[in-house]
Design brief:
Four copies of one chain form a homotetramer. With 160 residues, chain A is an alpha+beta fold. In chain A, 19% of the residues lie in helices and 34% in strands. Chain A has a single domain, classed as Thiol Ester Dehydrase, Chain A, CATH 3.10.129.10.
Chain lengths: 160, 160, 160, 160
């Protein structure tokens, strides 16, 4: 079936979109996402939020693989969540399309704050505010490189 | 951020596409997909294949939620995999875009056979042939309804 | 290999233990738990905490399957987390044994509060306080049945 | 709650047991393991089997972390599954205790074959035969070290 391989360029929306300072990522709910209660398993909202953060970073030019295997730095840099406050408002279910909304709300030396919300159409299902940091391979906080900082700064969105 | 909700219609490729009798679904590799070896955790290819099957069915008009909560049948119908032979050819890694290719290769009374392959660009990473069946809430095989059978039949693709 | 089936009774510690009003559950870190950074994927701590809550409930005689398929109530009762505040202190890694500590700290009509902490030996890796509720199949809060309430009450542990 | 930390030694059965040449590992079914159909999500049996293999190796003195970060070899050795043929016989459900049975059936230079079965009491739920290999950081097969080979050899069990 090799001739049908269509390449990454064939899926322009795969990393979502940034609109009005908010990153939007659609997520389809599959079997794997649900539990026997019929609802999405609660911890999975954290997976969706991580996908949203990763794709937001991707769209502004920050890539996990490069940070982790950077040929010069050899520091195995990576982002970690240090605190996350979550609210579960309503459940998503099989076959649903939900949308993860992500914004950067503030920026420190090695740390930054985000707000993330998950909607199904206009209904809010899940919300979280979280603190993340850049760390090296020994777990020490590392100051955000200047070019990365500039990109984050350009997308700060403090509106409620 | 409610005003930015864009609705399902805004993501036309979310369920992949059917091209030349093969369903194609792109999958991004996130943190959650990898393990400490740096590669994608092997069981996750089964999750990607299940997403591919679900979206293939979705595009031909077969929905899990309807089967499971059908107002008339009350039979809680659902698909199960009964056997799956898998080959792991090469690993996917963080940030990769892979593509799941799915085709129906044969069709019985309650059962059908599929072939699924996962590519990164032209490289084959994973392949599987599997048998699936429609069962009711007691786990008994159920003959595929005629309209569903006709849809499957229209997409049979036995070519290697 | 059937003759070697040893039955549930052969694994006395499988649901952990309650000691001094705290439920303790050991969790082994496997490939599936880690991500390419080498650490445990952050959302997995919520899975471990859910295992801890489920086994605490199991040891005091409250079972998910019974609540969900109760022959009389027909209400499909189940527990949901409504809010969870989490702190990620240090990462667990492959082959680690960690321990989930769970205590009930307060009890309302349909709701209750818990504190959960994850340790590796004496080191705190993760902590959370959370609110959970009993709901029916329509998502409405349901008052805790009296016998369940009595069991929770007997294990309240407000100490820090 | 620090004083209640009980340490690894307090959970003697955590890695299962080897009996008559078969490794036995109990697994509890939690919310995270199930899907909306009420059954365990099919890909999760591969996770349970991987836990079984890891704990079998652990009990015979082979540890993932040591292989991957071995101070001398610097080769980042690790095991990968190269092929796995699976059969899904009957579903596990919430609150079930299942048991993963693992045996080594043959041994080559860099490769070895296993059979794994999952039971609930005497009922067979899932079975698989699989091929695994030791590879280095570049994905090349590596001959099993002699001491590891001797340990595997001592536990070969070809009986059906």
């Amino acid at each position: 079936m090799n001739e049908t391989v269509s390449g990454t360029g064939a899926w322009p929306d795969l990393a979502g979109r940034i609109e009005n300072g908010v990153h939007l990522l659609p997520v389809r709910i599959y079997y794997e996402d649900t539990d026997f209660s019929g609802a999405v398993y609660h911890a999975n909202y954290l997976r969706y939020c991580e996908r949203g953060r990763s794709d937001f970073l991707r769209l502004i030019g920050v890539h996990h693989a490069e940070l982790f295997d950077h040929p010069e730095s050899r520091q195995r840099l990576g982002f970690v969540v240090t605190a996350m406050n979550t609210r579960f408002h309503a459940p998503a279910r099989i076959d649903d399309v939900i949308e993860v909304h992500t914004r950067f709300v503030s920026l420190g030396g090695a740390r930054f704050d985000l707000v993330q919300e998950v909607f199904r159409e206009a209904q809010l299902l899940f919300s979280a505010d979280l603190k993340a940091a850049l760390i090296d391979g020994e777990g020490r906080p590392r100051r955000l490189p200047d070019d990365m900082r500039a990109r984050f700064q350009a997308h700060l969105n403090e509106s409620p």
